[in-house]
Amino acid sequence: MRTRSWWGWGWTEEALPDDECVALAALLPGLADRPLPVPVIDLKDPRVRAPSALRCRVSAEPADRAGHTYGKAYRDVMRALRGDLAAAPDLVAYPASEDDVVAVLDWAASSGVAVVPYGAGSSVVGGVEYRGTDHRGVVSLDMSTMDKVVEVDRVSRAALIQAGTLGPALEDQLRPHGLTLRHFPQSFEFSTLGGWLATRSGGHYATLYTHIDDLVESMRVVTGAGISESWRLPGSGAGPSPDRLFLGSEGALGIITSAWMRLQDRVVHRASASFHFGSFAAGLEAVRAIAQSGLYPTNCRLLDPGEAGLAGLGDRTVLVLGVESAHVPVEGVLASLRTIAGDHGGTPIPSRDAAADTWRAAFLRMPYVRDAMARMGAIVETFETACTWDRAESLYHAVRADLASTVESVTGSPTIVNCRLTHVYPDGPAPYFTVIAVGRPGSEVAMWDEIKLAAMETLHRHRATVTHHHAVGRDHRPGYDRQRPEPFALALRAAKSVLDPHGILNPGVLID
Amino acid sequence: MRTRSWWGWGWTEEALPDDECVALAALLPGLADRPLPVPVIDLKDPRVRAPSALRCRVSAEPADRAGHTYGKAYRDVMRALRGDLAAAPDLVAYPASEDDVVAVLDWAASSGVAVVPYGAGSSVVGGVEYRGTDHRGVVSLDMSTMDKVVEVDRVSRAALIQAGTLGPALEDQLRPHGLTLRHFPQSFEFSTLGGWLATRSGGHYATLYTHIDDLVESMRVVTGAGISESWRLPGSGAGPSPDRLFLGSEGALGIITSAWMRLQDRVVHRASASFHFGSFAAGLEAVRAIAQSGLYPTNCRLLDPGEAGLAGLGDRTVLVLGVESAHVPVEGVLASLRTIAGDHGGTPIPSRDAAADTWRAAFLRMPYVRDAMARMGAIVETFETACTWDRAESLYHAVRADLASTVESVTGSPTIVNCRLTHVYPDGPAPYFTVIAVGRPGSEVAMWDEIKLAAMETLHRHRATVTHHHAVGRDHRPGYDRQRPEPFALALRAAKSVLDPHGILNPGVLID
């Protein structure tokens, strides 16, 4: 029986043991020689109590409250490790039905209590952490009890799924029907359908179906003005899409309780190939040609030399390509992709699939490694973006230069800045950056904040989005507020004022 | 030099001559023996005058005003043919720049004048016709002077295009760059980019990229609260999409002035095939398998026997398949599609491409034929929808039965109800219906309204969308108002109240 970590990523039992933490310190000179200890939970008493009329389980247990205080950003983990749990919710509610959700919202609205929706807490943008002062208390609305696939329509390949369903449970329930959602974000094991929808999560596909948005047939959302339910439709042009207003609304406009999702047959045919490139710029050109070829590879991941090195793939630019189909053989498509990669200077990496497998193993372990690095005194920031191809290479160089110089001025030490492309579009890539630096004990969070601001500034200067799939939450507000067109901000605020008239829904995310 | 028809579709010179109109009467017993004459334009004087401070051309000419009175729905054409131009705008403004648009809106807001944006007037849902009584006057804002491709980004394959650019002019300006938007709605020749965006138009592709929505990188919109400009991004997860609020907003939230659009390389490889099926139901099963195969044919049009007959393809269910690529040969994909069609009982139609060509010629001529039928006293209604596969066949039968019975009770005569699929998705098709009946002279519009209401009622009962790509306008309001989730209606109304504080933007479409 495994337990969820209250302070860090995933399972407590999967966290790196102390000796492995110490071994990681070799990565960067200046890190600590022993890991930060995990503190004992110490919380103030809850300020509010749930009325007995609420039928769902409501917990005031310290372990529950501590585990629902933060998401999983570096600054969240570090604050938890430092014992800072001042932001802990007063209560954690576990609705078992939509009626329970309505009841919690009604009580919260009448009591001036803020409601922070919580899927599985994998937010890395401060999306599940209340930071305000205007409310009498805070309840974390943990949706994990609503975890069922309610109905499957095999003919239309769609299913009605409750919002609190975790990735693995969702796939487990679809498997007997021969179907899959095929949405596999890095957080898959510890994130829910509702969280994916509320944050416009990015999944499995490198091309074509990148965000969860396109997989939605209809949604049910509990708002302060009633329940919004869109029709199950394969496509529609009846006014602005209702679903697109709630997709990415991060709990500020309502609580998503279920959705009809578009499914797929399970994959039968798979093929992959990997290539080395002489430079990241050369790799970018190859990936652009692939993204514009109409071949839509499932996987198309370009790693810069540093990123490849961290994943154990040597220190050259690596491109990992994958093609999948449930219906037809894919070797022909892979052959066309090979040709494009070769034409752009790619050298095949002989051992087929090796790079993909090595990468995948490293990929899934990364959040645990990040936590171990944090315990060793490293500052680790990951951020991701998207921009058009015409500015991709200059953005890459600018981020590396700006972050290196910022980190040096903040920490006085050298830094690692790596990059990979997670998704690619015909008109541009989605680069993902990792920054590792040496923190000053006790100042890590303030230093991280400075690095984050610098990253947002560089993205803004290149008109690259503040987030491609991590969402806005609270951490990205400085960048998002400048990026969002002002008339749209007015419209969003007006929408919130009617859907959340008491201002209790996840206050602080997206908009004030 | 051709002239635009003020009363009907397209070019005056392309309208069917009287003898061809008479020949069409053979289609249905009971039609007239000579066509309705085209009346002389007779208008009341304009109620408002444009201030001299407006720098753009503003016309009060009767021919301009008559030509901007209606869209091109049957009820529009019939009212024009009956000389009913009571809804004519007082003025037609032709802004040459975004500043001109702002100036017109400012003047209209301060004068209580309604502004009806006008691309090229192809709306078949009352989208460009003011029907209110609350304004001192009405100005039709004709965007056709803003018709330039302003900038091309060859690397990212995108272009900044002004909203008033007509389909052919847009493609003409992209061709020298080797690029194409590849958005070809039936109205292509007489509709504009801005109109496509404002109405979520459906284009060339039967699968994958169906609506214009997915081709948008960023948009500029003049609202009553300033100009909204989103960033050029290949993808983003930064909050709810600003563009998706304006896509489908039909001029009610602002005037779209330009957009960065995603382009494609020009097609090099093409292949197509056609099949007969024993029944429409069998054809539906084949199309479902194709739509769920991940092969994404460019063209996948299923015609029922009546529709095939009208297009000169015999009186059996016909499936027309097409595959296109700018980069790789497509014979392999077509072979896979042939196999699926064959496995589902499709019999190849020997003469390759013949069905596709015959269909295309009939398709482009249809609006002119519709006008000729109207002149011969026929009532012609076309409507389109989308639903999930589990209800597709029952919807098909219900629409045919309900419409036949409605038309018989309304007209006392038999009717023709045909169907084709225009777009198909993995989770459902988009069927398009044509209804032809004999009208009672002078009552055609009232009869059409009854048929339209009956159609919306049948769609509603099957939870099929009131429109897949024709938009809502004013004619679809009864269906749309019931389909739209009420909390979303509140949000949309709140958004309109801040973006259109004086209530002058296309009053009556979408929401009150």
Plain-language structure description:
2 copies of one chain form a homodimer. Helix content of chain A is 33%, strand content 21%. In chain A, strands 15-12-14-13-17-18-16 form a 7-stranded antiparallel sheet, with helices on both faces. A 5-stranded antiparallel sheet of chain A has the order 5-6-10-8-9. Chain A has a 4-stranded mixed sheet with strand order 1-2-4-3, covered by helices on one side. Chain A has helices spanning 18-24, 62-67, 74-81, 98-111, 167-174, 193-199, 242-246, 280-291, 305-310, 331-343, 354-375, 392-411, 444-461, 477-483, 486-499; strands at residues 57-59, 91-94, 113-118, 137-142, 149-153, 158-162, 179-180, 216-223, 226-229, 255-262, 264-265, 269-277, 299-303, 317-325, 347-348, 378-384, 416-425, 428-438. In chain A, β5 and β6 (158-162) form a beta hairpin. Chain A is built from 15 helices and 18 strands. Among the domains of chain A are: 149-265, Uridine Diphospho-n-acetylenolpyruvylglucosamine Reductase, domain 3 (2-Layer Sandwich), CATH 3.30.465; 269-470, FAD-linked oxidase, cap domain/gating helix (Vanillyl-alcohol Oxidase, Chain A, domain 3, 3-Layer(aba) Sandwich), CATH 3.40.462. By secondary structure, chain A is α+β, with helices and mostly antiparallel strands. The model of chain A has no long low-confidence stretch (mean pLDDT 96). In chain A, α3 packs parallel to α11 (354-375) and α13 (444-461) packs parallel to α14. Chains A and B meet through β8, β9, α7, β11 and β18 of A and β8, β9, α7, β11 and β18 of B.
